[in-house]
Amino acid sequence: MRICVIGSSRFPVREPFAGGLEAHTHALVRELVRRGHQVTLFAAAGTDPCLPVEHLSYPSFQPSDAARRDVAAPAGDWLREHHAYLGLMLELASGRRRFDVVHNNSVHHLPIALSALVAAPMVTTLHTPPLGMLESAVALSDGGVRFIAVSDATAKAWAPRVPSATIHNGIDLETWTPGAGGGPAVWFGRLVPEKAPHQAIIAARAAQIPLLLAGPCWDPGYFADQVAPRLGGSVTYLGHLRHQQLSALLREASVAVMTPTWEEPYGLVAAEAMACGTPVAAYARGALPELIDDRVGALARPDDTDDLAAAMRRAATRDRTQVRRHVERRFSLRTMVDHYESAFQDAMAGSRP
């Protein structure tokens, strides 16, 4: 197939990844290319040049002085992102580029809103709970876009607006490989309030289990107020790591910890940890109960750090071989791409998911 993939215009699709969306896009495009498809990824400048990428960097748009004086003027980053996606969709609508299917893997509203202008059918992956701008685009779409949710929880959240089929995110089992474990607990992801790494620190100290944290610091104020004062002793922050470094860390970890304060749409961290044989202790929120059960980890009451501490101790006793097999059966990259290929073929045939 000739596949257009619309990625992020804000963050490059490269390691170390800004988040799960960029990691998912990288893995999906790489596997589609390996299977012989002709893929063009539209993504931010700086994206991994090993991917078949064209940068979402249309001629830089600078509003006039008069527009900037508008008291309701949008932020510069918002306007630049809007300009990039508007340019891309108008280019696709022109018909100068031929694709069999467009896969919208962004979280921007314009690809959905302007999908009717494009000849090729569109498949959109819902990576987030409902957001206002996305809901608006979905409400006005002509029904020609087919939607994929990354979890049943995300599909349920979007159900009042649009039906979707679930395709769980998959991971490369050759990158995330099993290890013996027995070391400290690990928390990794974006260090932001909605991921709440400070609650993982509180729980780890209560469980008397050393904790390593890794990930990009997107909110310096939150980090300074809630995370930095709790570091030291048995808790260490390692910075923003590449997948190879994270995999090595997880192979030696006794347990991985997840502390979302929002309805986690999927939880790629859980699949990556379990692929290394590392069980997961997490708040039972969003999609995490779909990924984790008592055989491969332990769930805790949301926002209850004492219950999470107990879950960490229980999870650390799980059989690591069984944890790895759980991911092999349910969350492999190959299984995910098999499902996406079917979804693309259904879209081309005009059938519903």
UniProtKB/TrEMBL annotation:
It comes from the Bacteria. The keyword tRNA processing does not apply. The keyword Nucleus does not apply. Residues 19-174 form the Glycosyltransferase subfamily 4-like N-terminal domain. Residues 188-319 form the Glycosyl transferase family domain. Keywords: Glycosyltransferase, Transferase. InterPro entries: Glyco_trans_1, Glyco_trans_4-like_N. It holds the Pfam family Glycos_transf_1. This is Glycosyltransferase family 4 protein.
